[in-house]
Amino acid sequence: MLIKQHKKDLSFVMDNSLSEQTINRIAKDTKFMIRKSKVPPSCFVNTLLFNESDQAHTSLPDLTADLNQVYNIDISKEAMHKKFTPASVKFLEGLLSELLCEQVKKVTGKESSLHFPRIKIKDSTRFSLPDSYDNNYKGFGNFSKSNGLMSLQYEYDLVSGNWLSFAMTKGLRNDQQDSLETTNSITKGDLHIRDLGYITPLYLSAIVEKQAFFLNRLPPQPVVFTTDGKMLDWKKIDRDFKKNTLAYKELDILVYEKNKVPCRLIIERVGNNEYNKRIANAKVKAKSRGSVPSTLLKIKLQYNLFITNVDAGILPFNVIRKTYYLRWQIELVFKTWKSFFRIDKMKKVKKERLECQLLAKLLWIFINWRLFNTYNNHAREIDKVQGVSVLIFFKRCVKFAASLRLVLLKKCSITYWLEQIYLPLIADCLCEPPKNKQTHYQSLEINIKP
User: What is the CATH number assigned to the segment(s) 114-331?
Assistant: First the structure.
């Protein structure tokens, strides 16, 4: 059954999203291919896609040598350099978009048995570039003042495992700006879990208006009101916790002074060690501004503060924290991108070449994500609380890259590759829970209706 599922998925990618016909169509639409070229679009993609080195260690002669060896195409490094244009960037963006669109069309058929059809996790990762590239990727502050800075905005669905959106943006474009510019992607019934950097009054209001759901930490800035319009008394809450030795407290509140958003506030006391860490960090930040932590801040640092518009019958207080921590799965994804595929290793080259090489690397990651998702869905059908480890699977991906290229070039049968190379490598990639903890697959059980 597993081989059959993988074969179906790989065949679909080869015959549709990465077929010669689709590649040529996108190449023409983006003006990458205006007339017949010595290097066909499919060869250009394949050479970039299966380059084993990171961008910092890939030269133009490396690329031309690959074209010569695999396709018998003899091209100079100067001619290869000229292939990297704004049109080539649009071409590779179009291919990635095609793969994303084809994936999103898939329907699991299980939505009716779930509280949330999708649990959408979004975050960004930034890395320095070797050059500022004028104003395209300008750096800032101590992070990347003299060089450039790129941000990758990424969102995926924990329920289906599908990528939902991906964008390369300027490092100066912060998460709040992304949040405000992408409210049109909010859909009814979905649960959105995001870092504090994305949270704004307009973002939360848009979720409520579109009958979707949010779960995040309470931002430090907004004023919080009780349902009768009075400001929340944090000192009184602190006294209640200490007097009654409470572990948690839940309140219905209105957050933000203008455009008040109704939601639940879940207050959970943290341990002394965690509190001491928070106080130490707060003192360092305050000292850099020439001040000291306020009394109100010291009170708030004693607690985990979560806000959500999900009914308590679906997300009771005792699962709020572990549900929010599902957000950390996206950090594991970013870790695989940097550790195993080294997307953050860059050298100074023509801007379009840098972008093309990065997009090609992400295309390669996405193809492997399709394989991961197929294997993961199969594992969860056998046991719904088990799943595949992202870190282990993508570590093994590097080992079968060259042989997978032969499959896509149709020089090796899919069945042979799956049976003899792929499956033996990924046979032991299941996620093992840490001691006295759950895997995120077990935490996802909260989404299944009783």
Answer: 3.90.350.10
